[in-house]
Amino acid sequence: MQIYKVFDSKSEIIFSPKKSITNSLNINHLSEVSKYNEINKFHFNYITINPLKSIQSWYSDCKFVDASGGIVIRDGNFLWIYRNGIWDLPKGKLENLEDFETAALREVKEECGLDSSLKIEKLIYISFHTYAENSKKIIKRTHWYEMIYSGSENVFPQAEEGIEKVKWLSLEESIAKSNESFKSIREVWNSLQI
Q1: Domain co-membership, 119 together with 176
Q2: Do residues 163 and 83 share a domain?
Q3: Residue 184: pLDDT band by 50, 70, 90 thresholds?
Q4: Which of 14, 42, 58 is the last residue of a domain?
Q5: Which long-range contacts (CB under 8 A, 24 or more apart) does 118-122 make?
């Protein structure tokens, strides 16, 4: 059963064939979200037999962007980047005719200065979040992979992408950084089976 969560501004909307969270409101249309936000309700369910198609329909006025990234593990530590004042996981947009796995490997290598010993273990999560860019509303779908790295622990931030730091962090530090990061990153982190 496919279930997707869209992080839309302050709201979290789950698109699923059946209700998946009991303390959230069922909604029938995206326009209901802002009405409920006014009374401090931010968690919603939309019941649909085809969650992905419903997301595409609901957000048809948005530009769809595909991206890929990963949680990289090396000797029990996890790779984090610091960009725009927040700890994040490495990721980036797909290039023309690129598949999700190829993009994930390329982006993580570029953003963190890793070599070809970076390997994908498995897909762990697909996230959706909205944002605005040049007054155009965008919805980004990101495929997240669990990755293993056996190369040097030396890492180098991709400064031209605004990345200030790249660090290997312990499990405890990673849990703390995930709780300080974006809600969507926290969701990705929590999907990792450790």
Answers
A1: yes
A2: yes
A3: very high
A4: 58
A5: 118/72, 118/147, 118/148, 118/149, 118/151, 119/147, 119/148, 119/149, 119/150, 120/70, 120/145, 120/146, 120/147, 121/145, 121/146, 121/147, 121/148, 122/146
Parent domain of 125: 63-191
pTM of the model: 0.90
The per-residue DSSP string of 133-184 comes to: ETTEEEEEEEEEEEEEE-S-S-----GGGTEEEEEEE-HHHHHHHHHHS-HH
**In terms of domains, do 46 and 70 share one?**
no
Asked whether residue 76 falls in the same domain as residue 95, the answer is yes
| 186 and 101 inside one domain | yes
pLDDT average, residue stretch 144-154: 95
| Residue in this structure with the two tokens 């974006």, named with its chain if needed | 182
Identify the pLDDT of residue 30: 83
How many domains is the chain built from?
Answer: 2
